[in-house]
Design brief:
By secondary structure, the protein is an alpha/beta fold. The chain has helices spanning 14-24, 37-50, 64-78, 102-128, 151-171, 206-217; strands at residues 5-9, 29-34, 53-58, 84-87, 134-138, 177-182, 227-229.
């Protein structure tokens, strides 16, 4: 059986990095995509040390041309087939609704929602050539419940949930699974500098999310993996 072929956006740090390394431990070929090349190079080295093969693909998910170029590189590395795509790139802005400017609103929509659309539509041909192909869209508990001072973030994540639900219906006949992941607060650099009283010691670790995704990918055909919750930390 050939190694799994995986693409993870937002793969340079946090949850994306943890997912990349989880699949690498199973010998996967993992393409990690993000804007920062130095972070990607470190992750690729860690993928190799974990037993996988890695490729760094610089990608700005707000830019269709950047996504196209990164997916082209991905296809060269994976033989134009993908088994797993994780739309993980995201931003998180906290501010009262009266202080959310147009730039902040657009950034949340473009990174958290439009980016997943760009990436998914670019990789559909490769997914159709994959073995048990599976798309994972990284939402949040904020895709199910609104929170004060996160209007742009919640709106984008609710939108991502809707995108996932519709995509699942459309791709099911092709045998492509689509899962929406709903992590609670997770201790990553996304909280660096964010205003608020955040107890990061009580948050999930990125590896908790990665394990949920790994288990869902390996779930049998009769198991419902449409909506994935991440258990709270022990």
């Amino acid at each position: 059986m050939s190694p799994l072929r995986v693409l993870v956006t937002g793969g340079g740090r946090g949850i994306g990095r943890a997912i990349a390394l989880r699949f690498a431990r199973e010998g996967a070929r993992v393409v990690v995509a993000a804007r920062t090349s130095t972070e990607l190079d470190e992750v690729v080295a860690a993928i190799g040390a974990a037993g996988g093969q890695g490729l760094a693909a610089q990608m700005n998910v707000r830019d269709r041309g950047s996504v196209e170029a990164a997916v082209w590189r991905c296809n060269q590395f994976t033989g134009e087939a993908l088994d797993v795509v994780v739309n993980n790139a995201g931003v998180f802005d906290v501010a009262p609704v009266t202080e959310v400017d147009d730039e902040t609103w657009e950034r949340n929509m473009e990174v958290n929602l439009r980016g997943a659309w760009y990436v998914t539509t670019e990789v559909l041909d490769a997914l159709s050539e994959g073995e048990r192909p599976h798309v994972f869209n990284m939402a949040s508990i904020a895709a199910r419940e609104g929170f004060a001072h996160t209007t742009a973030y919640c709106a984008s994540k609710y939108g991502l949930r809707g995108f996932s639900d519709a995509l699942r219906e459309e791709l099911s006949e092709q045998g492509i699974r689509v899962s929406t992941v709903y992590p609670g607060p997770t201790d990553t650099t996304i909280f660096d500098g964010v205003p608020g009283d955040w107890d990061r010691s009580a948050m999930n670790a990125p590896e908790d999310v990665a394990e949920v995704i790994w288990d869902a990918y390996n779930a049998g055909e009769g198991i419902d993996v449409a909506d994935l919750d991440v258990p709270p930390p022990a």
